[in-house]
Design brief:
Distance between the termini: 41 Å
Number of helices: 6
CATH class: Alpha Beta
Number of domains: 1
Strand content: 25-35%
Largest sheet: 7 strands, antiparallel
CATH topology: Chalcone isomerase
Shape: globular
Strand order of the largest sheet: 3-4-5-6-7-8-9
CATH architecture: 3-Layer(bba) Sandwich
Radius of gyration: 19 Å
Number of strands: 9
């Protein structure tokens, strides 16, 4: 009888350790540890959800969405005017600058229903972020700060700041519009 009790206690202890370690150290996806919380413009953001972007059965990057409060509604995520961030951790050496630029361009086309011309200059500035060689383990932090705009970091170095809620909505639409980069990634980032 005491062996059954010991085994039960060991299993409960192991389960508790796993829950606590996930809470303290973040989510581990495809070998990438996504932090539970980040700070943006003096606001603490929590990991809403994260997943893997795949193409042709190949894992390309891990994407994580950070919000002030968890949201599972894609429209609300795109349209909310508050600090938030998307973290992209490159996990494939197959991603090239050209492929990323093309994917982002297609994403903006889908996000805006083909109406990119009003945002063309801002889109071009954003795509310019990917002109440098992209390497495995590069990390892009795309952070929106109200009244300031979208700050784009590559490996913790600020690359550009692009103004406007209209641009933020279109950019977030790449992952959260009706035709997202990948439906399963959208669901994962929304915590579904």
């Amino acid at each position: 009888m005491s062996d059954k009790i010991n085994k039960g206690l060991k299993l409960k202890t192991l389960a508790l350790i796993l829950i606590v370690s996930t809470t303290l150290f973040g989510l581990n996806i495809a070998g990438v540890k996504m932090p539970d919380k980040i700070t943006v413009a003096d606001k603490e953001l929590v990991l809403n959800g994260a997943g893997v972007r795949e193409k042709f059965f190949m894992d390309l990057y891990v994407g994580g969405l950070y919000l002030q409060n968890k949201i599972s509604d894609a429209e609300k995520v795109m349209n909310t005017d508050e600090a938030m961030s998307i973290k992209l951790h490159i996990i494939s050496s197959l991603i090239t600058s050209k492929k990323m630029k093309n994917a982002v361009e297609e994403g903006f086309e889908n996000s805006t229903s083909g109406k990119t011309s009003p945002l063309r200059k801002k889109i071009d500035r954003f795509i310019n972020v990917f002109k440098e060689e992209i390497k495995e383990n590069d990390i892009y932090d795309i952070t929106y700060i109200p009244e300031k705009g979208v700050e784009i970091y590559k490996n913790n170095k600020l690359f550009d700041t692009i103004e406007g809620l209209d641009f933020k909505k279109a950019l977030w639409g790449i992952w959260f519009c009706g035709e997202p980069a990948q439906e399963s990634l959208k669901d994962d980032m929304l915590g579904k």
